[in-house]
Amino acid sequence: MPAPVIVAIVAVLFWLGYRYYAGYLTKHVYALDPKFVTPAHQFTDGIDFVPTNKHVLFGHHFTSVAGAAPIVGPAIAVFWGWVPALAWIVLGTIFAAGVHDMGSLVVSVRHKARNIGTIAQDIINKRARTLFLLIIFFLLTLVNAVFAVVIGNLFIANPGAVIPIFLQIPVAIAIGQYIYRTKSAALIPSLIGLIILYFLIWVGQMVPVDISPWAEAIGMEPRNLWVIIMFAYTFIASRIPVWMLLQPRDYINSHQLFVALAIIVTGITVGWETIVAPAFNDVPEGSPSIFPFLFITIACGAISGFHSLVSSGTTAKQLNKDTDARHVGYGGALGEGSLATGAVLAATAGVAATRADWNELYSDFATASGGGVGNFVNGIAAFANNLGIPLQLGAVFAAVVVIAFAATTMDTGVRLQRYVVQEIAELAGWKTLSRNLTLASLVAVLVPLGMALLPGGGEDGYTFGVLWQLFGTTNQLTAGLALAVIAVWVTRGGRSIWPVVVPLVFLLIMTTWALIVNLINFVEAGQWVLAPLDLIIFGLAMWLIVEAALALGKARRGEPAPVAGGNDDGAGSGGGTAARGRHVDTDRSEE
Prior knowledge:
The chain has 591 residues and is mainly α. It has a single domain, classed as Amino acid/polyamine transporter I (Up-down Bundle). It is 72% helix and 0% strand. The chain has 23 helices and no strands. The chain has helices spanning 3-29, 39-42, 54-66, 69-77, 82-109, 116-123, 126-157, 162-182, 187-206, 212-217, 222-237, 246-271, 290-297, 305-313, 324-350, 355-361, 365-385, 391-428, 431-435, 437-452, 461-492, 498-525, 530-556.
């Protein structure tokens, strides 16, 4: 199958999804209101609550949700064949991710930009809030741990990426200061930042940075040293205002998405690349089954629960207009689906010239898992080479794309984990932890750091062969639970519920199935850290599913919400300023 044909088909389907299905969601499911005063205006503080242009916010939101997952997952999932992987990406993006991302953003905006776990208290009941917050804590732990290891492995494999990634930070801070102080548009400064980044990629190729001697001097593996460095960085990055680093760097990285997609599409077309991988792969005996594992391996790129945390954690605090949710939420889902499509093509048409070469790279699931990121990087380098870009430089460029997205996700993930730690501590009555920003940030960093440094399974096997499966399952489970909260809210508004319920039921079936299979596998393999964690997540999920089902039944019978919280306007049609409820600014907590 010619890869350019696939690109054209997916582009048309995504355009139709945004034009028609997102339009239907806007009017008939979420009832977006241009007169609604968003929390970014209600609670403006210059730190978290910052009214932001929808194009700038799209950049922040997309690069926060994308990370490495829509690259790693699809590059692994083609193990079962490129047709099922691509079908799940396209259908999941249009009919599940768009609904989920846009819905979680809208519901959060209607509830003072609180996170989806806290909103569960207003929509379902108080127990649901506690259960959801605990599940979110586990998910964020896995997200931050996995992405830190991804970055560490990429720095080791591509030392030329070190200089551009780290020097991008002061460049982004300078741009953020300029935009914030002068109130200037972000487009031109961020494009200048992108040009500087590409110059730094050339510099990085000339001056690669290898920390192996330093790691050996202190008796540590180089990857683990990189993991520690990344968590030390995110501890600082998650504490500073979003406009200072997160927004300008995210906007630069959003341009990177379009450049990367342009290189993929142009390189594929110029080289008229052909997919050499099988449409449906005859996997070896003993491999994970396509049901349910395809749908959790591609955790991002089809639908991802982490997106609901970003939508309701940072994006909702910056949404300028209610109607911008379509552009930012649904559009962000399409952006990630496009990146996931590029990952599929890189792993099936770019990384190998023949079927025999591809079969060697995907000989079994462990090989496919350990080589997913490398296959993407090498595939993009091959596409770039069709345009006259040297393979080595193309590989550094691709590595910078993955690392930049993963680092941004870690920035946002640690910030969100700090919010969750403070909320859980508040519920438990631990005032010191709930009010102390430094202590909460330390917990948000040290827990996933410990998970990332756990030994076992080989250099790549533990993270991608073991930890990735639990991350994917928990991620998709969170998406299903977020859809459950959205479904109850939509039902109370008297609007169409089926666009929410169908992906909700599908995800809950796949994820609970995967949790059970993983639990058995973890016990048989003696994974006595992951087995109890899997069991705890499964128990919390089952409890929350029951609570959500009961709340949905009450909503369909017209019974009132359990508490009178948030600034939910029911049908979503009330204009004007919503009522100011109790507002706690976690970034102004007592030090």
